[in-house]
Amino acid sequence: MKTAFGSLYPVIGLAMICTFLAGCVTTPSPAPKIAQTVSGRPEVVIQGDLKAVQTAIIGKMRYHNYKVEQQNDNLIRMSRPLQPNESVSASRLAGRNLYDSSLSRRVTTFTIAKPADIAGIVVSSKIVAQGPDYQVYQVEVADTDDIFNEIQSDLYAIKSEVENLGKHTGIPYWPRPLGTNFSMTLQRHPAY
Fold first, then answer.
1. How many domains does the chain have?
2. Residue 62 falls within a domain, yes or no?
């Protein structure tokens, strides 16, 4: 097909290639939050003993390479080194690539309200980075959809674990060896 400016086929071909490439580079939208909570942060209510709740939280978070920084009846604060995808956030937070990566970490805090046999747990999670000026910078990440969903899923697993801890049919259950999982998840003894 001829036009006043030459052949139209190269223009159509170029338009089709641009449209195809534009479709390939679009990023998928993040998954929506799996729960709408009162605080806007991951939270759950667990019926069970305080020690069982704390042990389950610590076990689940140790599985994710967290270490306990502070613990009392109302609070568990844990941290772990940043993963590669989180280091980008830390460098933006602290300023370019000049932050001290050895001091940067992700800090997750479980706040526990414990009236009677019910534990209400609200979680906050922050990326903490130290800049070149020795200033400590932090940003809350628990309200982003992907991290919210990750933490909320862990809370649901902890809730299920604690609430079903003593409910079995009399067949002996034994804790898993430390090498397989640090949580309180119970498994059937091999002899049964």
1. 1
2. yes
Q: Which residues in 135-164 are b (16+ Cβ under 10 Å) and which e?
A: eebeeebbeeeebbbbbbebbeebbebbee
Q: Which helix (H) or strand (E) segment is 75 a member of?
A: strand 75-81
First-to-last alpha carbon distance for the chain, in angstroms, is 80
Cβ neighbours around 46 below 10 Å, total: 25
Contacts of 88 (CB under 8 A, 6+ apart): none
Indicate the pTM of the whole model. 0.67
Residues paired with 105 in a beta bridge: 81, 128
Q: C-alpha angle with apex 23: 18 to 26, nearest 5 degrees? A: 125
24 falls within a domain: no
Distance CA 105, CA 140 (A): 12
For 20-71, write each residue's pLDDT tens digit.
Answer: 555 555 555 567 888 888 888 999 999 988 899 999 999 999 999 999 999 9
Sign of CA dihedral 59, 63, 64, 67: positive
Tally Cβ neighbours within 10 Å of residue 59: 18
**Domain CATH number, residue 73:** 3.30.310.80
Q: Is 109 contained in some domain?
A: yes
Q: Which domain holds residue 109?
A: 34-188
Whether 18 is covered by a domain: the verdict is: no
Helix (H, G, I), strand (E, B) or coil at 90: helix
